[in-house]
Design brief:
With about 55 residues, the protein is mainly β. The protein has a domain of about 30 residues. About 0% of the residues lie in helices and about 25% in strands. The protein has a three-stranded antiparallel beta sheet, with no helix packed on it. A hairpin with a 6-residue loop joins strand 1 and strand 2.
């Protein structure tokens, strides 16, 4: 049975603090974390690259 799409009315800007990247040391998938409050219109939030595998 096919799952039905559930629209949660989220804007693209609401995903602005989620970045999946490749670690340059171990080549595994990791993420970039935003430090502090993220506002969709705010582009100068401090971000930190953290690899869970290295």
């Amino acid at each position: 049975m096919k799952k039905q799409f559930n629209n949660q009315n989220r804007m693209l800007e609401s995903f602005g603090d989620n970045f999946l990247v490749i670690c340059p040391n171990c080549s595994k998938q990791t993420k970039v974390l935003s430090l502090g409050e993220h506002q969709p219109s705010q582009i100068d939030v401090t971000k930190r690259f953290t690899c869970l595998y290295c």
